[in-house]
């Protein structure tokens, strides 16, 4: 059921006492480093393995420029949003949901529904993608151990879905803090392994021929460039920063900045090393998953098998954590309607609906992951129409509306400029991503055993 828009009355802390989504799922007990763990899991995921592919559509110079620009702009954007949340908290209105923050600051009921629509698309999309990629990881390992085995991709997706159903019963976002710390370590682990594997491949006798040239036609270059920009924007996006900040024990003022610094330190280490090493080795032949480039269909693996196996296991484990993080918004919406805050979190009255609803949600994500193994192309569209509005445009608008900087100030115009530039990038990115979707349509097959690259 669609949640109701917020009451125009101030969001006082006492008004949350009857809100099971707030009291249970978005429980506010965390420290700044816990927010750092959640942020890192939300942003630093296996999608960073597509960075060499994104560079393939941009080349060295524009690739570095785009990666750095996206990093700086998103850090700035998330910092502004945390400032807006801090401002509202000091005014007695502690927002714990993106949709409530946007509706309150902008004074618009339709903004509430716009944000929840975009968030739902992103969160469900990431949930489907996490299950699909985890299933693909299992299939890669299975195919290596049993090349002629009878199990198909959808069998592995079903296995992952069962695991996700079990671990999704962790009741609160805060209860994921230990899992998300492990996720942070896993992201560092597989990034270092991939970089080492790329260096090994690039210096071996079987090193691929390097070609960094772009498409010959200007139109193809333009489309590929904006597709790459959409990919990088989606990699940096999270769309759930208010919900992450909600897990902090009040007062949250200043804590999110420390969490952001932790997260972006990991981003700097992992994103640049993976992008540079992968593109250096494979150039314009880089796959959308650099691990697949290291494991060509023909010929031997370009890196030691054990390195690739451990990398795939690390990726698989982190995908489970990512699926959990992005499902929290759906869970708080469901529990706000289904749970009774006056009874215990683990009472039969609340436990049974939680198990049923969360299991159904994961089953739905698993079903679509099995049915749509070409979801990577759809994710490009979701990134352009979802992450760009929530992470590159709305935070600037919210800051300007909240703090009302004079029109003569630098910060006002830098915010306006970012909004204009990324609105254009979002439109062009959507167009180029839809174009790729159409071009790849002939490869799509429901419940296929292969993921479309």
From TrEMBL:
<dbReference type="GO" id="GO:0006865">
    <property type="term" value="P:amino acid transport"/>
</dbReference>
<feature type="transmembrane region" description="Helical">
    <location>
        <begin position="101"/>
        <end position="133"/>
    </location>
</feature>
<comment type="function">
    <text>Carrier protein involved in proton-driven auxin influx. Mediates the formation of auxin gradient from developing leaves (site of auxin biosynthesis) to tips by contributing to the loading of auxin in vascular tissues and facilitating acropetal (base to tip) auxin transport within inner tissues of the root apex, and basipetal (tip to base) auxin transport within outer tissues of the root apex. May be involved in lateral roots and nodules formation.</text>
</comment>
<protein>
    <submittedName>
        <fullName>Probable GABA transporter 2 isoform X1</fullName>
    </submittedName>
</protein>
<keyword id="KW-0813">Transport</keyword>
<feature type="transmembrane region" description="Helical">
    <location>
        <begin position="61"/>
        <end position="80"/>
    </location>
</feature>
<dbReference type="Pfam" id="PF01490">
    <property type="entry name" value="Aa_trans"/>
</dbReference>
<keyword id="KW-0927">Auxin signaling pathway</keyword>
<feature type="domain" description="Amino acid transporter transmembrane">
    <location>
        <begin position="29"/>
        <end position="430"/>
    </location>
</feature>
<feature type="transmembrane region" description="Helical">
    <location>
        <begin position="184"/>
        <end position="202"/>
    </location>
</feature>
<dbReference type="GO" id="GO:0012505">
    <property type="term" value="C:endomembrane system"/>
</dbReference>
<feature type="transmembrane region" description="Helical">
    <location>
        <begin position="153"/>
        <end position="172"/>
    </location>
</feature>
<comment type="similarity">
    <text>Belongs to the amino acid/polyamine transporter 2 family. Amino acid/auxin permease (AAAP) (TC 2.A.18.1) subfamily.</text>
</comment>
<keyword id="KW-0812">Transmembrane</keyword>
<keyword id="KW-0472">Membrane</keyword>
<keyword id="KW-0029">Amino-acid transport</keyword>
<keyword id="KW-1133">Transmembrane helix</keyword>
<feature type="transmembrane region" description="Helical">
    <location>
        <begin position="222"/>
        <end position="241"/>
    </location>
</feature>
<dbReference type="InterPro" id="IPR013057">
    <property type="entry name" value="AA_transpt_TM"/>
</dbReference>
<keyword id="KW-0769">Symport</keyword>
<feature type="transmembrane region" description="Helical">
    <location>
        <begin position="410"/>
        <end position="431"/>
    </location>
</feature>
<feature type="transmembrane region" description="Helical">
    <location>
        <begin position="302"/>
        <end position="326"/>
    </location>
</feature>
<dbReference type="GO" id="GO:0015293">
    <property type="term" value="F:symporter activity"/>
</dbReference>
<feature type="transmembrane region" description="Helical">
    <location>
        <begin position="261"/>
        <end position="282"/>
    </location>
</feature>
<feature type="transmembrane region" description="Helical">
    <location>
        <begin position="355"/>
        <end position="375"/>
    </location>
</feature>
<dbReference type="GO" id="GO:0009734">
    <property type="term" value="P:auxin-activated signaling pathway"/>
</dbReference>
<feature type="transmembrane region" description="Helical">
    <location>
        <begin position="381"/>
        <end position="398"/>
    </location>
</feature>
């Amino acid at each position: 059921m669609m949640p109701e828009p917020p009451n125009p009355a101030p969001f006082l802390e006492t008004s949350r006492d009857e809100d099971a989504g707030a009291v249970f799922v978005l429980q506010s007990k965390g420290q700044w480093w816990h927010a750092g763990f959640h942020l890192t899991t939300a942003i630093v995921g296996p999608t960073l393995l597509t960075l060499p592919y994104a560079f393939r559509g941009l080349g060295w110079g524009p690739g570095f420029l785009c990666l750095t620009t996206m990093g700086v702009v998103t850090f700035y954007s998330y910092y502004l949003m945390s400032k807006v949340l801090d401002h509202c908290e000091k005014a007695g209105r502690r927002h714990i949901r993106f949709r409530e923050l946007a509706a309150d600051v902008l004074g618009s009921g339709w903004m509430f529904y716009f944000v929840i629509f975009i968030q739902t698309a992103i969160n469900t999309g990431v949930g489907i993608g996490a299950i699909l990629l985890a299933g693909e990881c299992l299939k890669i390992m299975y195919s290596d151990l049993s090349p002629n085995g009878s199990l198909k991709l959808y069998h592995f997706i079903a296995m992952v879905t069962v695991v996700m159903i079990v671990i999704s019963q962790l009741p609160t976002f805060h209860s994921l803090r230990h899992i998300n710390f492990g996720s942070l370590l896993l992201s560092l682990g597989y990034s270092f392994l991939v970089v080492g594997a790329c260096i090994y491949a690039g210096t071996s006798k079987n090193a691929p021929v390097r070609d960094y040239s772009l498409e010959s036609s200007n139109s193809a270059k333009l489309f590929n460039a904006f597709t790459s920009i959409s990919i990088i924007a989606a990699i940096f996006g999270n769309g759930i920063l208010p919900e992450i900040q909600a897990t902090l024990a009040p007062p949250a003022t200043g804590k999110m900045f420390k969490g952001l610094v932790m997260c972006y330190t990991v981003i700097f280490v992992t994103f640049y090393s993976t992008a540079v090493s992968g593109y250096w080795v494979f150039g314009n032949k880089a796959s959308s998953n650099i691990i697949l480039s290291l494991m060509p269909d023909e010929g031997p693996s370009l890196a030691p098998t054990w390195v690739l196996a451990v990398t795939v296991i690390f990726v698989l484990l982190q995908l489970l954590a990512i699926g959990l993080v992005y499902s929290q918004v759906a869970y708080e919406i469901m529990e706000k309607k289904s749970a009774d805050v006056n009874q215990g979190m683990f009472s039969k009255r609340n436990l049974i609906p939680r198990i049923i609803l969360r299991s159904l949600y994961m089953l739905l994500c698993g079903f679509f992951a099995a049915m749509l193994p070409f979801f990577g192309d759809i994710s490009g569209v979701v990134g352009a129409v979802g992450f760009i509005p929530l992470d590159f445009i709305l935070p600037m608008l919210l800051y300007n509306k909240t703090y009302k900087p004079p029109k003569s100030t630098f910060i006002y115009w830098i915010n306006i400029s970012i909004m204009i530039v990324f609105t254009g990038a979002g439109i062009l990115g959507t167009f180029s991503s839809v174009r790729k979707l159409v071009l790849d349509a002939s490869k799509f097959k429901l419940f296929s055993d292969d993921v479309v690259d």
